[in-house]
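Record 1 of the preview.
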Amino acid sequence: MDKSTSVAGTGTTTWKVKLEVGTYHYQCDPHSSTMRGDFTVGAAPPPPATPPATKPVALRATVGPGRSIVVSKAGVRLRSIAAGRAVITVMDRSAKDNFHLTGPGVNRATSKPGKQTLVWRLTLKRGLYRYRSDATPTLRGVFRVTA
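->
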């Protein structure tokens, strides 16, 4: 510290100091829980590493041809899956039936008339998901999303 001066009547004190590279902490002793902070002199520390985004799980939902409906992962009927992002390729191969998925925060369906293929990008949340054909009540299935 080089010198200390006080400005009369203001209650302000000015100090001249030479700061080295590093991080410094300051606080008001009577109010240390609210009047405090830190500052860095020199190169700032690198930002915290951002975790890589997880790749969405690829699922396939199929209705038709005929009286069939299924949600699968890698060709195996889906019974349970961890919560997270998913890309569902919905293949509606029936002119009569549609594919309708409901669950926590999800209520999506293909159109009833006509065949189509759609890609749905969803975030699956913990809970029970049901899928069905609105035209044929016996065409239905279920899978569970876990934490």
